Each structure stands twice: as structure tokens, then as C-alpha cells.
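Attaching the record inline, Q. Sequence:
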Amino acid sequence: MRGALMKENIKKFFKVLIYLIVFSSLYLIMQITVTFPYAFFYMFFKAGAKSMSGDPNAFLSVNPQEIMQSVLMPVLLSAIIMTFGIAWLIHVLFRKNFFERLYFNKTTVSLALISFVAGFSLQIPIGDIISFVEKARIMPDAIQKYSEMMESIMSGQNFILEILLTGILVPIIEEIMYRGLVFDQLRKNLPLSLALIFQALIFGLIHLNMVQGTYAFMIGILLGVALIRSRSIILPIAIHMGTNLSGVILSKFQNEIGNTAEMIMRISSYVLAPVCIVLIFIITINKPHITKNKTNNALE
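Structure, as predicted:
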């Protein structure tokens, strides 16, 4: 009897582990998968004319950084569509309820707006913390590589596409994956506090660099708490959208912002971020919160 129970627990553990690995890395896998054909076709059309004119080094002359900048937005859009479609299809094939795991419950417009402002206001404090760490010579190589990577990837992108993809669609798909599927599976099999920490840890690790992963972990905690208290994924999506959109806007116009405007923005951010987060806690204090699933069945 004890052996059969242990065997069942081991089987359950591996089911949960496989589920978490698949759905926590699916978006990243889709990005990597679609990058190769986009990069190949870009190189083909970019270097095709030179190659046909007899230039033997036509393909080697294409700059890898130029390739990544040019295919980034199509890659993101394709990865978003494929990730959602595959996640839905897997649940359909295994006869598991997909949309009920996503916590798309109603919330008030005012609470969603407060959440958006909270996320929008977090970008400047996050940037200041990174700058402080850099000046303190903590992880200087990691921060330098992160800054260079972000600048090389995001420079020269179409602003409207950045808003649409990075600011709107990416937060939606990431919240569906991490605060939806991943968190839902964790909270069914772990104490709620551990589920909260682990979903944020997975969210941080999936960013694949220490700097972005560290603040993604901290924001992941906030996003998870917002979900737990509101029972609605709309709040995490709103916070995530605010954070990403402010990042896109600041990166686009930071060189055009005067000292006075920058000071006003900084003060506003440091005031609005904590005020909005406190308001979220106050407004949701009497709402029913997400709790650990008492049935504790894996892969429900």
C-alpha cells in the first residue's frame, strides 16, 4: 500500500514538473524556433542581390545585430500567436480546461487603471536601482551586457509596433503563461506562499540574464499578489502593460526629455508607484482571494 502511494506521488510529481517545464518555457521556445527562418529569409533577401552579382562574401557581410533588429518584431508577433495556439491545443488534446486556469474574471475599471498606473510608475525606480547597482560596481559586467543587449535590440524599431507588441501583446501572453497556467498548477500542488515565490522565480529565470531576471522576479511577486487578491488576471496584465509601455516610451524619448520634466516624472513615479500599490491592497481587502486548491489534484 505504501509502495503504491509512493509510486503515485512520484508519478504526480513528474506530471507537474513536465507541465511546468513545458508551459514556462513555451514562449521562449517559440521565439527561438521562429527566429531561425526569419533570420534566414532576411539574410537571403538582403544578400541575395549581392550574391547574384558575383559577390562571394555577400551572406557573410550581413551584420548579425542588423538581422536581430530587423526580425525582432515579426518574431515576437509569431511567437505570441504560436504560444497561445499551442498552449490551447495541448489542453484540448488532453481534455483539460484551458480558459478556467487563466483567471479572466471581472474587475472594476478603476482598479485596472490604478494597476496600470502602478506598473507605469515602476519603470523609473527600476532604472534608478539598476543605475545605483552599476555605480556601486555590483555585477558591472552583467549590467553592461544587459544595457548593450537592450540598446542593440530595441534601437531602430518601429515605435507603433513596439507599443503594440512589447507594450500590449507580450504582457498578455506572459501573464497567461506565468500568472495563469504556471501559477494555477503550482498553487494546486504547493502552499500558496511557495507557489507565489516559484512562479516569480520561473518568470525571472525565463528572461535568461541576471539583471532583467532579478527585477522580473520582484515584479513577478507583485503580479502574483495582485492576482491572488483580486482573483483576476486583468490586474497583473494591467501592471505588466504599464511597466512595458513606460519602458518603450522612455527608451524612445529619453534623450528629448529636459531636466525639469525628468525631475517631475521621477518624483511622480516615486509617489504614484507606492500609492497605487497600497490602493490595490485596500480596494481588494474585502474581496475573496485565491487560496490553495483543497483537492490538491495535479493537472486538473
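Residues 221 and 259 are 33 Å apart (CA to CA). The radius of gyration is 22 Å.

More tomorrow.
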